[in-house]
Amino acid sequence: MRTVAVVGTGLIGTSAALALSARGIAVHLEDADHDAARTAAALGAGTVEPAEGPVDLAVIAVPPALVGPVLADCQQRGLARCYTDVASVKSGPRADIAALGLDTTHYIGSHPMAGREISGPLAGRADLFEGRPWVLTPTPDTDTDTLNAALELVALCGAVPVVMDAAAHDRAVALVSHTPQLVSSLVAARLEHAEETAVRLSGQGVRDVTRIAASDPRMWIDILSANAGVVADILEDVAADLGETVAALRSLQAADEAKRREGAQGITEVMRRGNAGQARIPGKHGAPPTRYATVAVLIGDQPGELARLFGDAGRAGVNIEDIAIEHSTGQQAGLVQLSVAPSAATGLTAALRERGWSVRD
């Protein structure tokens, strides 16, 4: 692959263009918003000059409802030899493409499982797809050259290819992406009119749950409109669980001891199911999840403090598997939670204390 056209320079399109340009691919940028295309070009994602002939691959990075019309336009212009889209829903665009009678021999649907809670070309990052799954949903007549072009795209972006049926993909993303987005928004919505004293008590737990609630509603309307039925089905199941949980909580307040035990059992069961589901989420590098030990270190909000902490951990011969920072409200300090192998926790704690760090038990 030597030449690529990226049609749509939002977060995903710009990130793909940045990754490809960094690997020496000549990238031609298009967008209905010419300012967005020029911004992506200024970031080093490619050029807004049109290609002289058909490019090797066109990446259509537009909302699901626009994939069919944009693909029709690109094929009519002979923009590329092969085509893929990166929309987050696959069944709807495939149906639109079939209804328009477009060439599917040289087309393959795809979806990189990566994103951010901010959008637009300025949010683009060349490393956005590194190590992330990138789903490919070939049609029954997608030819080998087109599949290979898509696989090369995935490799150039540093992602991991996963081949799936379009409908199975949509059910999967409804469960692991679209429903969590709405649940996060629903929890965050409770904070909108909450008392300031309550909001100031927010800790890492509520930050983790509500992080993606900062996403652009306009972008999510496009996504959810294309997968609304499946997401609604899952939310109905969540609503049933919520109803049972509410009933269990009411039982915990009952005067009758048997009722309280019943309520406790209900809460225990929903949390047990949550434990089991969370344990199935792949861990580091896609491996089975590993239970790490946590070493919590109080750190000042000053330049170089994190680097010094990581350096001291390195000198202790300990690999940091993950990190989280809980910021103190109103203080220039935070609690850094270092996830390490359980066998390394005691030694790291001792080494850090020897170097003057305040390690919390």
TrEMBL record:
<keyword id="KW-0057">Aromatic amino acid biosynthesis</keyword>
<keyword id="KW-0827">Tyrosine biosynthesis</keyword>
<comment type="similarity">
    <text>Belongs to the prephenate/arogenate dehydrogenase family.</text>
</comment>
<dbReference type="InterPro" id="IPR046825">
    <property type="entry name" value="PDH_C"/>
</dbReference>
<dbReference type="InterPro" id="IPR046826">
    <property type="entry name" value="PDH_N"/>
</dbReference>
<feature type="domain" description="ACT">
    <location>
        <begin position="294"/>
        <end position="361"/>
    </location>
</feature>
<feature type="region of interest" description="Disordered">
    <location>
        <begin position="258"/>
        <end position="287"/>
    </location>
</feature>
<dbReference type="InterPro" id="IPR003099">
    <property type="entry name" value="Prephen_DH"/>
</dbReference>
<dbReference type="Pfam" id="PF02153">
    <property type="entry name" value="PDH_N"/>
</dbReference>
<comment type="pathway">
    <text>Amino-acid biosynthesis; L-tyrosine biosynthesis; (4-hydroxyphenyl)pyruvate from prephenate (NAD(+) route): step 1/1.</text>
</comment>
<dbReference type="GO" id="GO:0006571">
    <property type="term" value="P:tyrosine biosynthetic process"/>
</dbReference>
<protein>
    <recommendedName>
        <fullName>Prephenate dehydrogenase</fullName>
        <ecNumber>1.3.1.12</ecNumber>
    </recommendedName>
</protein>
<dbReference type="InterPro" id="IPR036291">
    <property type="entry name" value="NAD(P)-bd_dom_sf"/>
</dbReference>
<dbReference type="InterPro" id="IPR008927">
    <property type="entry name" value="6-PGluconate_DH-like_C_sf"/>
</dbReference>
<dbReference type="InterPro" id="IPR002912">
    <property type="entry name" value="ACT_dom"/>
</dbReference>
<keyword id="KW-0028">Amino-acid biosynthesis</keyword>
<keyword id="KW-0520">NAD</keyword>
<keyword id="KW-0560">Oxidoreductase</keyword>
<dbReference type="GO" id="GO:0070403">
    <property type="term" value="F:NAD+ binding"/>
</dbReference>
<feature type="domain" description="Prephenate/arogenate dehydrogenase">
    <location>
        <begin position="2"/>
        <end position="283"/>
    </location>
</feature>
<dbReference type="InterPro" id="IPR050812">
    <property type="entry name" value="Preph/Arog_dehydrog"/>
</dbReference>
<dbReference type="Pfam" id="PF20463">
    <property type="entry name" value="PDH_C"/>
</dbReference>
<dbReference type="GO" id="GO:0008977">
    <property type="term" value="F:prephenate dehydrogenase (NAD+) activity"/>
</dbReference>
<dbReference type="GO" id="GO:0004665">
    <property type="term" value="F:prephenate dehydrogenase (NADP+) activity"/>
</dbReference>
